[in-house]
Amino acid sequence: MRTFAYQGFDAVGKTCKGMIEASDRKEAREKLSARGILAESVSPASDADPSSSRRISRDDRATLYRELGSLLKAGMTVTDGLDMLMQAPGRNAASRVMASARDRVREGAPVADALKDGGLPIGEYEQAVLTSGERAGDLPGVLENLADYLDTESQVRQRITSALLYPCLIIGLALVIAAAVLGFLVPRISRLLVDSGMELPVLTRILLVSGRLFVPVLLVMLAGSVLATWWLRRVWREKEITRERVEQVVMGSPLAGRPVRLIACVRFAGTMAMLLRSGMPLVEAMGLAGASSGFRRLERRCREEAEKIRHGKSFSDAVQSIPLLAEELQGWVRAGEAGGDLPGMLAQAAERGRRQWMVMVDRRTKLIEPALLLMVGLFVLLVALGILLPILSLNTNIG
Questions:
Q1: What is the DSSP track for 311-331?
Q2: Contact (CB, 8 A) for 174 and 376
Q3: Are residues 237 and 325 in the same domain?
Q4: Range in 13-17, 43-47, 95-99 with the lowest mean pLDDT
């Protein structure tokens, strides 16, 4: 049986839409006709418009994960849980995704693949964590943890957006004023001063040149930003070697490097603790935990070290061989191995790292606003000096 989405008219002529299970389109139309519905269109739920599935936000995914996890904890099967979520009101786009995912699960597909193939816009980290949880037999707990992670990430995004809103408005206003000042005011004042026979100060001449180049440079920068964003997204999805280089640059940057490295370690440690507690072998768990980090370079190194563990290398030595993990987790891993509670120590390391990450991101977002305001203030000061200096010099000469 497959799920079909339909649009049509009921017995009184009102438009209606919904989903129905059938073996093919013909049977779906027959069932709808038996209900008194004239079907205008009938299509598989898996044929949903990609643009509609993209409207499922991060918060929506967190809610779906949390509700599905609760249903599974209550004893429902995955298909029954997806069926209940599909029938919930107010979820037009998500309903088709759940229906398509339910069909894929019935066919034997893993939950992560079923959700992704159904159209849910999940990232690599979410897919890896779902895969790990299903293999470890702890899908309800993983869904709840994943929902908590997405909620935390949404809070951080909102905090960053709020912190940047005011500076962005100031910068936008400053650009408009700069275009007016550099394009009209400074040139006119400069022409008056030149006609008076006065030599313009260096700063004023620089502002004149900047005024002529301001609009072309701004357009070039905007075009360059669009092209760079497109290239990075393409690299992130397709080219493994270039993506690893981009990841290395980001992790080594002074502003974003430390938070990015820390969140990679938090993801690795949290997933590793969950898998080990569920009884998964260390070798397989390390490969999946590396994939859950969301960084290809770390995933590749974890798989390489997992093979060495298979041939007798200890887990602590493997972690020490990966600089990114050794920086944050080496002490925790050694303590866990010595105390016989490696999953517990990794869970504590993940929780501590998560708190550190929140504090770190909060501090950096608070620094952005005064830094941007300082830059705007310096720009306004330079423009003011460029205008005032020749006027003051003219007054001095007249005096």
A1: TT--HHHHHHTSHHHHHHHHH
A2: yes
A3: yes
A4: 43-47
Q: What angle do CA 395, 396, 399 make, to 5 degrees?
A: 85
- The tally of domains found in the chain comes to 3
CATH number reported for the structural domain that contains residue 284 in this entry: 1.20.81.30
The predicted pLDDT at position 48 comes to 56
Range of the domain at 13: 2-47
pLDDT > 90: what percent of the chain? 4
Is 397 a residue whose pLDDT tops 80? no
Question: What are the C-alpha distances in Å from 298 to residues 50, 142, 286, 304?
Answer: 30, 21, 11, 10
Tell me whether strands 2-9 and 15-22 are parallel, antiparallel or unpaired. Answer: antiparallel
Query: E strands of the chain, at which residues?
Result: 2-9, 15-22, 38-44
> 68 and 98 share a domain?
yes
What is the distance between the alpha carbons of residues 295 and 234, in angstroms, rounded to a whole number? 15
347 lies in the same domain as 279: yes
Structure tokens at 49: 């418009």
Does the predicted TM-score (pTM) go above 0.70? no
Chain centroid to CA 137: 27
The whole-number pLDDT of residue 123 equals 72
| Cα separation, 184 vs 205, whole angstroms | 14
Q: Say how far residue 30 (Cα) sits from the centre of its chain.
A: 44
